[in-house]
Amino acid sequence: MKNPSNEHKITPWLKGAIEVANSFRHSRILLTAIELDVFSQLGKARMSAKEIALRLNTNPRATAILLNALVGLRFLRKRGGLYSNTASGQRFLVRESAEYRGAFLVHIARCWHPWQELTRVVKTGEAAKYEGPTEAAAFARAMYDCGLERAEEVASLLDLTNVRHALDLGGGPGHYALAVAKRNPSCQITIFDHPDILKVTEEIVSLHRDLKSRIAIMPGDFLVDDIGYPYDLIIGSNIIHSYGEENVREIIRKAADSLSPGGRLAIHDFFLDDSLTRPTEAAVFAVHMLVVTGVGRSYSVSEVAKWMEEARLRDCQNLSLRSGPTSLLVGRRSS
User: Fold this and answer.
1) Cα 184–186–192 angle (5° rounding)?
2) Which is it for strands 215-219 and 231-237: parallel, antiparallel or unpaired?
3) Does domain 4-100 have CATH number 3.20.20.140?
4) What angle do CA 271, 276, 277 make, to 5 degrees?
């Protein structure tokens, strides 16, 4: 006879499954606070729930419940019935802060509704109805927020000794181009992306007065337009995961053909191992690409290395990033 006490025992595995299933609650609480701009409205002040609700134009009782949960999650402080930002919240989630990173969280919030369609997407293979940011500029700013430190690390892994002309392909806000420019004062860099994205790029580059004279802007669609020639280095950061295999191979071929002899192509992305299950973050990111593009995914190192070799690139190396979970795959064109 089965032991009834064992039948209903919550094992560590089951507990973990329940925690994962319930984790959306924490996420939704934070994202709602981001959408309502709670942190910026608080700023450096200490306010009651009623005062905050008045500023947000929200229901006072519901606002108090949300604020208390944010305190429990350590995103806010509460003392004497008054709420305030934590030091980190003031630093990263208040719009007036020089280190504001909320744009990326706004981007994540916009992904909430598409992800609700995941079951349908898996059944049909068709992407969710996802319009993304209301304007391309918002997406570019979000990518700038989340990629600053990683861009510096990517640039530090590259040998820039003989690089005189580089291309940041699909360069978005230009943080990778700026990181390379900082490390190589002799390098001229071209940022290639869609015109609506490049509006933000130009704004960001203009803030770097010591670097902007060495950075050029080239509008276009790299799937159909000429990307220029020749380059000693081409960086493709977080672009291939948005496309299907055929387009990825074409992007690699076009980039390889645009390199000078001995030039290198550096692809920075969420790479998987041969099982396509690790690292976990890359496997989960593949689902995100499935949801929002229908055709994109995370690719394995061996897949992309093979396509680079087919494009006559040699000595392919996969360089790990300390910041993870992305890595850098570098191949060299034969001299």
Assistant:
1) 80
2) unpaired
3) no
4) 100
Its CATH class, for the domain covering 136-333, is alpha beta
The rounded Cα 9 to chain-centroid distance in angstroms is 40
Q: Mind listing the pLDDT tens digit for each residue in 295-307?
A: 999 999 999 999 9
Residues with Cβ < 8 Å from 154, sequence gap 6 or more?
176, 179, 235, 237, 266, 268, 321, 328
Q: What are phi and psi of 157, to 5 degrees?
A: -85, -15
Q: Which two tokens stand for residue 269?
A: 């992305």
Residue ranges of the alpha helices (H) in the chain? 4-7, 12-22, 24-36, 38-42, 49-56, 60-72, 87-92, 102-110, 112-115, 118-124, 136-157, 175-183, 195-206, 245-257, 280-293, 301-310
Domain boundaries, the chain: 4-100, 136-333
Look up the pTM and report it.
0.93
- Contact criterion met (CB below 8 Å) for 313 and 265: yes
Interval 198-209 mean pLDDT? 93
Residue 266 near residue 236, CB atoms below 8 Å: yes
